[in-house]
Amino acid sequence: xxxxxxxxxxxxxxxxxxxxxxxxxxxxxxxxxxxxxxxxxxxxxxxxxxxxxxxxxxxxxxxxxxxxxxxxxxxxxxxxxxxxxxxxxxxxxxxxxxxxxxxxxxxxxxxxxxxxxxxxxxxxxxxxxxxxxxxxxxxxxxxxxxxxxxxxxxxxxxxxxxxxxxxxxxxxxxxxxxxxxxxxxxxxxxxxxxxxxxxxxxxxxxxxxxxxxxxxxxxxxxxxxxxxxxxxxxxxxxxxxxxxxxxxxxxxxxxxxxxxxxxxxxxxxxxxxxxxxxxxxxxxxxxxxxxxxxxxxxxxxxxxxxxxxxxxxxxxxxxxxxxxxxxxxxxxxxxxxxxxxxxxxxxxxxxxxxxxxxxxxxxxxxxxxxxxxxxxxxxxxxxxxxxxxxxxxxxxxxxxxxxxxxxxxxxxxxxxxxxxxxxxxxxxxxxxxxxxxxxxxxxxxxxxxxxxxxxxxxxxxxxxxxxxxxxxxxxxxxxxxxxxxxxxxxxxxxxxxxxxxxxxxxxxxxxxxxxxxxxxxxxxxxxxxxxxxxxxxxxxxxxxxxxxxxxxxx
Length: 554
Ligand code: ADP
Ligand code: MG
Prior knowledge:
Elements (H helix, E strand, L loop, with lengths): L4 E4 L2 H11 L8 H23 L12 E6 L4 E6 L6 H8 L5 H12 L5 H8 L10 E9 L6 E6 L4 E7 L8 E8 L9 H12 L6 E4 L6 E5 L14 H12 L5 E9 L5 E8 L14 E6 L2 E4 L13 E6 L8 H5 L2 H24 L1 H15 L1 H5 L4 H7 L1 E4 L7 E2 H6 L8 E5 L3 H5 L5 H5 L4 E4 L4 H4 L5 E2 L2 E5 L25 H14 L28 H9 L3
Parallel strand pairs: 2-8, 12-14, 17-18, 17-20
Antiparallel strand pairs: 1-6, 2-3, 3-7, 4-5, 4-7, 5-6, 8-9, 10-11, 11-14, 12-13, 15-16, 15-18, 19-20
The chain binds adenosine-5'-diphosphate and magnesium ion.
Adenosine-5'-diphosphate (ADP) binds next to helix 2 and helix 3.
């Protein structure tokens, strides 16, 4: 065998570890959840690989996580019989920040310099490294399924780690053993009461059974059965169960704001358990717009990369378990399977329908969801033509008359003014500035409600000829907003009188002075107190969109 090799952590890992060691983070318990979730992931990976290569399972086909306590030695061990890691894999995965959540954490930390790092850990969870919140030394012994070599990875979290080959007898027969040498103030993590309580609360629903061993020579007791929560009838599941499961399936630290659990029967059969988070996940606006629905086939985890939901529903967490996909299909082939297409259609329709119901029955709960995810859902207005109607029904807006509340389009069209034929909107990046824009004066004077659209995405869907109940969307910055036909509110400031000769003189003067800088200068109904404003030509691009494209170099 080769000699032990010592390596330096990636710079970011060192920083993270230093911070963790000095962390005063109050909820250190989460480290256990992270390690158990890694163990469960490893078992699920093996379950999947074992389909194509049954020999990997050997004579130990039942996945299991064992938690072993040793209070005398101040030791806590988490062991799984999952896929395991080779020495090289340990170097790659435990020495670097490969995990996207951890990466995002470090980025946020850099961006919010000075902010207490330990608070951020609580929002993100930093995976494997959280072990160093409670351990002064971590040893990992692992043997990859099918391999006849084993290796160890050891670190005190001070900047380096060592990888060495070990005798087969010193590693699990298959899988990974993580041994934590607990810090003085973390001794309680070797006590049964504490550990059992934490596991039941945090990890009671991981899909792999968990056994606890109170002492080195004690018999194990089952503390979690590894049953698939999503296959149980709803009546047997409490809100707490759902919340626990949500946290473990989503790797989130908040609660679900809304849960959708059902079984589809008919042409295809599948179970769905999905959650809308209570808070915005950190990767919501990542450019790859990745979804987070896990795909299972008859309880076997297949992938979390399958396009089960459209991108504008990427904030939804959870899983779909299909009975119709063949288990021995490659992940790539599954992506293109018509079954997956049917599932996507079914689940998307169901989720939108459910949101519609929620908005009818519990407007407040729905508005909280919209506040978090509205800008994402609106992407569907230009991406998903088929469901545009449904999405317009779900959309909520701030407007010149909404105050702190939200308006639906149904509300809007119910209160159209006499002769008003369009839904007026203004786009911009800032709600306050939008609402004081001079463009709105003529609308205010007529009591016409204008939707205020502050999100980037609003610059796109509004240009696609969208209408609602036959009323087209029209930007207030576009030319000839046909306000003349709509009567003024009583007592409103009168707009400038266009026939005025002085105005005509001024218009001529402005046109010659501005020359090619503008295509026209016109007197307008739209202003009451401001002197001028810029507008886009009737058929031209909206001003905000022009700005956006200009800044993107187009
Ligand atoms: P994540 O689980 O989000 O990928 P972690 O920091 O928790 O991030 O783990 C990093 C990586 O280390 C995992 O992706 C996996 O490749 C590897 N790993 C950690 N624990 C285990 C384990 N018990 N068995 C196999 N691989 C593991
Ligand atoms: Mg993990």
